[in-house]
Amino acid sequence: MTLKTVHAIVKGRVQGVFFRSYTKDEAERLGLGGWVRNLADGSVEALFSGEEHNVNRMLKWLETGSPMSQVASIITDPVSTHPDYNGFIIKY
Description:
Order of helices and strands: EHEEHEE
Largest sheet: 5 strands, mixed
Number of strands: 5
Strand content: 35-45%
Helix content: 10-25%
């Protein structure tokens, strides 16, 4: 099993459309740890950690996001450490 951790910033219409809630549900379905939160500039920031193929599936899911979102761009950066998250949370 290869572990992967990725930091992501999602831009577009991603606040006020349940993006964080849907992201949490999808991350939990894929067995990922990490977090998601809104940023002041209207974007959403997240960190996903888990099996490489599931992190890749999550990144693909972000391209569409929640049903009412409109994703304009995603900026991702690999994280060299793999924190041991106990579940996936929404940060406020």
